[in-house]
Amino acid sequence: MTITSTSGTGEMLEIWDWETGFPTGGSVLRDDAHRNGTPHEAVHLWVVRNDRPVPEILFQQRAAHKENYPDCLDITVGGHVPFGYGGNKVLKEAEEEIGILPDERNLIDLGWYRYEERTGALFQREIQHVYLLNDDRELHRFRFSDGEVAGIYAVGIDSLRKIIAGNACFDIEGFNGTGRVRRSVSRSDFHPQLFHLSMHAYMRVVMAAIEELAGTGSVTVRMPGL
To answer: Which CATH number fits the domain that encloses residue 87?
Structure first.
């Protein structure tokens, strides 16, 4: 049976089974999914630069008008997969959010992760497909065309490790679409869910993958799976 929810507004997403980790063929409006905890698919792309003395992870700055977590530093690229979409959605999101179109052969597939968030009226359950990409271009070569991203910042892996372990303050450099910027950041400047208990296993895999890529040029670690 195909189940469709149509009481909300926004784009249509495919309903996934939370226990088996497979799509059901049913559809749900994005607002409904986020209000009712209907499982759906999302894609994440972490972009790293390995041509520096210390590997750097790139974080997007969410636009100020975003309903959830405005201005926070977040995963380089992230998005939902619309119902019926047949391509690799992370490539489309990368082009729209940060102005790059990676070669799919260069994506490192880290697998799938179940993510659950309950914050006020928000109840979100995502089955996230996570990728890693090495891209050493300078920050001013990224472009933000969809209005969802206000800038991009490079965070050294040592600094990120400190902020995951506890609060820390350090300077980072970025590009806001018109020029280079430098700012001081602490944990409060990042998307809070990155440090939530539900994301500990996720972040361990991401950090291990980045370190492995920098050290050996390949990645064997994967998300816990479904």
So the answer is: 3.90.79.10
